[in-house]
Structures are given as C-alpha cells and as structure tokens.
Amino acid sequence: RDFAHIPPGPKPWPIFGNFGGFFIPRFIRRRFRRRRSESGDLKNTLDVLTKLADTYGDVYSLFVGSQLVVVLNGYDAVKDALSNHPDVFSDRPNIPAITILTKRKGIVFAPYGPIWRKQRKYCHATLRNFGLGKLSLEPCVLQGLAAIKTELLRLNEASGGAGVDLAPLISNAASNVICSMIMGERFHHGDREFRTLLDLMARGLEICVNSAAFFINIFPLLYHLPFGVFKEFRQVEGDITVFLKRIIAKHRETLDPVNPRDLTDMYLVEMLAQQAAGEGDSSFSEDYLFYIIGDLFIAGTDTTTNSVLWIILYMVLYPEIQGKVQAELDRVVGNNRVPSLTDKGRLPFTEATIMEVQRLAVVVPLAIPHMASETTEFRGYTIPKGTVILPNLWSVHRDPTVWEDPDIFNPSRFLDAEGKLLRRECFIPFGIGRRVCMGEQLAKMELFLMVTSLLQAFAFSLPEEKPPPPLLGRYGLTLAPCPYSVCVRARQAIL
Length: 495
Ligand code: HEM
Known about the structure:
The chain is α+β, with helices and mostly antiparallel strands. The protein has helices at 20-33, 41-56, 74-84, 86-89, 96-102, 114-132, 134-159, 167-183, 192-210, 228-253, 263-276, 286-317, 319-332, 348-360, 393-396, 440-457, and strands at 59-64, 67-73, 370-371, 376-378, 381-383, 388-392, 458-461, 473-474, 480-481, 487-490. Helix 8 packs antiparallel against helix 12, helix 12 crosses helix 13 (319-332) and helix 12 crosses helix 14.
C-alpha cells in the first residue's frame, strides 16, 4: 500500500502499532496489582486522542498492529467524512474479535451494502410500529420505572445512609424496554435467566475490549488457545448463542402470524412471507435474526443505562441544576401524575440538562468504527481502502470552535434568550450520516421518561461520609461513570 500521502501521525511501535504503548503497560500493571483499575482510562485515552489533533491536525493516522486507523477530530472533519462522503465512509471494518461474535451479520457490524440497508430499514420500521408509536413505549417505560422507584426507596432505607448503587436498577429498566420490543418479555431484575443473559453479554464485552483477548484483533489465532480468557471468550460466546437460539425457537413454536407480539415475531412473519414468495436470495433468515437480536440488545441497554447514570451523577454534583429541573417539573407536570412524552416540548430546561450531560459524557465517544470502502482523497490526504475510521465524537462535543467554554457544565447553552430549546447541529451523541444510531428516537424518549420520572419522584444527594465520585469514565464498549452511590429522598408519594 502507498502510505506516502496518508494523514500524519505519531510513530508506531513495531508489531503492536501505536496502541502497544497504551495496552501493554496496562496489562503489566494489572498483573502486579491484581485489581481492576477504576480510574478514567478511557477518558485519558480520549483526551490523548483529542490532543494529538493539536500536533497532527483534525485528520491524523495511528496504527493498531499493522492496521491503519484514521482519527477524525472536531465537527468539521467528522461531518465532512460522514455526511459529505457517506458512500466511502459508511462501511464497517472486519475486527477479528467482533467478527467472531457477529459473523458480520445483524446491523451494527454488517458491511455497508444492500443487505445491511434492507435489514436496517425493516428493523427500524418495526421498532417504530411497536415501540416508537408513543402509546406503546410510554406505558412500557413507566411500568418498569414504577417498580424500580419502590425498590429504590427500600434499598435506600436498608443502606442506613450509605446510599444505593443505581446501576443494576437502571440497567434492568433499560433492558426491559428493549426486551419487550424484541422478545415481548419483561423480567424482574432478580430473574435468574435474565440476569444470566445480562451477565454473559457484559462479560463478553468486557473480555473483548478489556482483557488479553483484545490481542485476538492483532493475532486472530489466539482465539483458539485452550486456556485462560481465550477459553472463557469461547464459552461466553457459546452460552449467548444457546440463550438466544432458545428464544427464537420458542417464538417459532408459538407464532401467530396474525397477531405478532414483538420484533422477533414480525421478523419471522416477514421471513416466511419472503420464502413463500420464492425469494431465494432473501437475507431474511433465523440466522440473521439471531444477530439482530444480539445487536439491538447490546446497542440499546448499555448506552441508555449509562446515559441515565451520567445524568443522575451530574445532578448530585450540581444540586442547583437538579433543583431547577425539579422546579420546572413541579410547575409543568405537578405531583398528581407522572411526566409523559406530551410534556416534552414544555420542559426546555430539563431537556437542555439532558443534552448538556450527553454533550460532556459521550457514551459512545468514538462512535462505532467505520471503514473506507474504497481508496479516496480526503482533505488533501489519501485514505486507502480498508482504513479504519474513528469519528471522535468526544472531540466534537469539546470543540472550542463551536462550543463556548466547552469543559464547563452549562445546560443554558442549549437555550435561547427566551428560554426555548436550541437545536445545535454540532451536538451529535448519536453520530451522523448513514450509520447514525438506529435507536436515536427510542433512546431520546426513554431518557426523557426515565430522567423526568426519577427527578420528579426523588431528590438525589451524595452520601455524607463518601468523597464525591470523579467525573471520569470507565473503559468498556461505552463510556460508563465510575461506580457511585446516591441517597434518595422521596419528594412526593410514588405514582
Ligand atoms: C449505532 C449512540 C441507544 C441501536 C450508534 C452509534 C452511536 C450510538 C454513536 C454509532 C454511529 C456511527 O457508527 O457512526 C447511542 C446512544 C444511545 C443509543 C448515545 C442512548 C443514549 C440505542 C438504542 C438502540 C440503538 C436504544 C436500539 C434500538 C443502534 C444500532 C446502531 C447504533 C442498531 C448501528 C447502526 C448501523 O450501523 O447502521 N448508536 N445509541 N442505539 N445504535 Fe445507538
């Protein structure tokens, strides 16, 4: 390959590329310390990736092993690539550890092309039918919230002032919304089968990005090693497969084509219709459905959960903003009913607060890796076919050319002089272009309902004896806040 005109970048290490310097010392450190780092590794990585642009420009290159990676920084470069050159920059790379899990099927890691387009279009429309029709999503989210509110009060009481870790409760509520839409089932957060699935998925992701299994991406044959984390990786993959296949089989056996219960039923009906019509090349198959379920579950659970956790964390660290949101909720919604999606337009400060937290705590900070599907000239550089493209959304949300005082938490930046909500083009927590998040509308509604319901019901504060948690992220597939506990005080009777 001709690397003469690729974007500039720091000199790579032999074999490991530029990330050797990041990963190798971490593994060595961890071997000796034998405990998981809770610090903001990813945030530091994001800061480093963002600062490299000061030296090399908004478009620079790195190597992971021998793989060329181009990082896009700031709003102009990200928008230019994803919105102005969508046919070149909308493909997904073949990342060995991910390909083992997804076989490049489903939606998230499927190659850009007619099959991905057909599957995405169908699933998006189906989710719309089931979930995004305001009437069906709202009761589903609110029902889940009613249960966790009661549980939250009980746990708070039992903690004796030490505070409650919200993560399992919020994760349960978010997973239940996705589960209801895909599998038509709701689970109690203590449900053993459900916990097993959540734990397996969390463990699979953890192994993929945060263990020696990461090196499968550089040396794919490591996957077959019969010991340690490599063996565990295969075991987790097998367990998830058994679990999801059982769910599909159960749906097939009880399918009533006239009354589809959820996305799985709708997909099976469409698949049968295409088979009956003799569409031999149809990509609709149970095999494909399997990967779509996995995709939506993973894409829709962690992202929403961590967004809510970040919002509550900012609320306890900025109690005056929490108070202003609650005052707006009291004024507009009152205390006789729970907030509804119809209140959305009338709660601008609350919406601005949610957006400001999403701006600062970008839960998918590097989007999902894209790939150049052909060699192209971009901003004066040659980007060879197969180059991995990382849109640094974190840097877009901290770009000083488009945000005033970008590091300051200030919800009012999303409001005009009359207090009305401002739509800002450079606010892109869901990405942009053809691969923009498929669950954007669903996620926005879920976030709104969860956050307003929780802040209407409770005042959140930090436990007295504990130091305030840092505003750093934890390394994973998404950017999660470091674990924290909060005390809750009921502001009104539970509705
Ligand atoms: C992709 C953010 C919730 C489904 C993405 C991407 C981002 C993102 C940044 C990558 C865009 C790119 O590659 O350029 C978020 C955030 C969420 C959220 C911040 C919550 C606050 C959801 C939910 C669903 C979902 C609830 C479930 C329906 C997807 C899918 C993709 C995706 C299927 C892949 C799209 C494709 O490759 O065509 N999301 N997401 N997301 N998201 Fe979300």
